[in-house]
Fold these 3 entries.
Entry 1:
Amino acid sequence: MRNVSTDSWRSIAARAENARAPAAWPVNWPAVNGAPGEPAFHDGQAAATGTGDAQQLRIDITTVEQILRKTQSVALGRYRCPVDHPQFMLGGGPHTCSYIAFHRTSVKMKIGDWRAEVATPNNVSFYNIGESYSRESIGGEGDECDWLAVAPSLLREIRADLAGDIDGGEGPLFPRPFAPMRPAAFFAQRKLFSIAGNPDTTMNSLQIEEAVTGLIGAIVGNAMDFWGYSGKARRKPRPQCQRRRLQIIEEAKALLAREYWTDLSLADLARHLHCSAAHLSRMFHAATGFRLCDYRQELRLRKGLFLLEESGLEIGDIAVQVGFASHSHFTSAFHRRFGINPSEFLRWKSSKLILAMKGGALKAGAGTTKNGAMKAA
C-alpha cells in the first residue's frame, strides 16, 4: 500500500474566499460564509433534475447540525442529535456530497446497503453521494459526531491520486462505510475541529483546505489499507460461521462502548457473549484491527480528550470518569498515545496544528505504535 503524504494532497487544494466561523449560527449562513453566488445548501430541484454546477459543494444539513467552516471545496461541521430528538429516528440522506464522520458517541449505524455496525470514537464513517443511513441508540447517548464534507471536484482528484491502489472507474470513492481511525489521525482531527469551532481563530481557505486534504489523505490511505487494498490477500471465515462471528463482534463493540470505564475482563466479555475467550480475542482483532484491551483503552482516551475540550473538569476527575485509576495513569497513557500531556493539550495553540499539517506531520500511519497498528487479517 502506497502511503499518501501531505505534500501529494496539497496540489488539490483550491484557493477560495476567506472563511471564518461565526460566533453564532446565523440565519443567513450562505451570505456570511459562502462564496458569492455559490449555494451553500442542497437545492433539491437542481439535484433531482441534474441542473446546476455539479462540482459545487452542496451540503444537506439538518436542524441538529452546524457548519463551522466552509470553502468552495470542503466544509467542516458538527452534528449533535439527542436520542429523543425526532431526527434520530429519521436518520439521514440521500446525501448530496460525500462525508467523512468522526464519532463522539457510540451508535449502531446502517449506511446504504451495508450491514449495520457499531460505530464508536475509534471508528471513522464514510458516506458516498446518494447514500442514506439509519441508526439505533447504544446506552441512550444519542448521535454526536463531527464531519468533513468534500466537493465532487476534490473527490475526483482523490480518486486519481489513489488510482494505483483502487479501481479508477465510476464507482463510489469509498468502497466500504467503516474503518478504524489511527491515533495520529484522531488527534489531528480533534485539533482541527477545536480550531474550526473557535470563532476567535482566523483560518483562510487555503489553510483550511491544506489541513483537510492532508487529513483526508491520511484517513483514506489507512482505510484502504485496512479494507485490504494493499495487495495482501484477506483470509475469510467459513460461510456457515460468518453470521455468528459478526454478531459476536458487534455485541462486543456495543458492550465496550456502553461500559468502557469499567474493568470488564476477557472472561467477563466471553461469558456475556457465550463464546470462548480465545475465540473472541482472535475474532475481534481480525475484524476491527484492535485487541480488545486496546479498543477499550482507545475509547477511554478519546472520551477523555472530548472532556478535556469541553467539560471544564479537572484532569484528575476526567481520569476517574473515563476509567483510569488516577491522574498520573491517565496522563501517562494520554502522552503515550498522543505524544502530549493533557495539560499541554489544553495549552496547545491552534497555529501549531496548521504548521504541523504544512510540515507533513499527517502521513498515513504516522504516530501509530505496535499495539495501535490497524490491519485487517
Entry 2:
Amino acid sequence: MMIRKSVSMLFSFFLVLTVLFMGCGGPNSQLTNANSKIVSSAQKSTANSPAAGVDKNPQSSQPSPSQIKDTRPLIVAFGDSLTAGYGTKAGESYPDYLERELNARGYHYRVLNEGVSGNTSKDGVLRALKVASLHPAIVIVAFGGNDGLRGIPIADTEMNLASIITTFHDVHAQVVLGGITLPPNYGSDYTRRFGAIFADVAAATKAALVPFLLAGVADAPDAATLFQADRIHPIAAAQPRLLDNVWPALRKLLPR
C-alpha cells in the first residue's frame, strides 16, 4: 500500500514538472524564438540597406573630369630647353603662357609642351612621329640652338628641320618654325649661315616663321637680367617675351 502511494506521488510530481516545462516552451521553443528574432532583425537590416550592386549615390556614377576626353584641337610646342622652360617652375614656360593667352582670347585649344632639354634637331626627327600620332592642329617647332652650340654641320640641321616639318604636314598639321641665332663668338660666317637656315626652311616647307625666338630677350638692353646664370636660358619673367615673338605667326593660323 505504501509502495502504491509512493508511486502515485512520484507520478504526480513528474506530471507537474512536465506541465511547467511545456508552459515555458522548453529549450527548442526558446531556440526557435531566438532564431526568429535574428531572422527578423536581418530582414529589417536588409530592407533598410541599398540593394546589392545599386549605388546609393547616383552622382558617383558620373565620369570624373579626368575621365572626360578633351576634344579641343591640340597645339604642340615641340623643341628643346627653350620650349621646355628649363630652369623655371611648372606653369612658367612660354607654352604655359600661350594656353592662358588662348583662353583669354576665347580660342578653344589645349597646349601640350613637348620640349626636351638638350635635344638637337636630330632628336626632333626621332620624336616627331610620336608627336604627329597625336594629330595636332598646329605645331610650334623650335630646334637648332643645341646644334649650333655643338658645331653640328649646318646642312644637317637644315635637313632635320625640313624633315620634322614634313612629318607634321603629313598629318595635316600647320607648323610654326622658331628661329634662333648663335653668340658672335662662334664666328661671323658660321653664325650668319646658321641664322639663315630658318627662313630658308620655312620658305621651302611653307611653314610660318618666327624670325628670332629670343627677340626682346637676347638683344634687350637689360639682357643680362633676363637670363639665368648659364647665360643661355631665359628666366621665368622673360618667358612672356618668347610668347610675344610666337604669337604674331601663330595668330594667323587660328580661325578668326
Entry 3:
Amino acid sequence: MRTKRSSRYVGAPAHPRPRFGVDLPDGAEVQIAVVDSGDQLDDEDRARLHAAIEQAHDELDRGEGIPAAEFLADLRSRRG
C-alpha cells in the first residue's frame, strides 16, 4: 500500500464534504493511503479481456483501425 503525508491549510483544496465527520484544523498532518482492490475480474473474464486487447492490437497491426478523430466524429453524428 502506498502512503503520502500531507498538511491542510486555509484555502487549500479539500473534499467539499469531510468524510466520516472529520474536520481537521489548519496545519494538521494526515496520512493518506491509496487502496486499490483491483479490477474484480475472475480468471476467465481476465483471459477474455486480454484476448480482446490482443485481437485489437493485431487488427491495428494489419491496418484495420480508424483514426480516433474519425471514430469520435462518427459517435457524435449518431447522437443526432
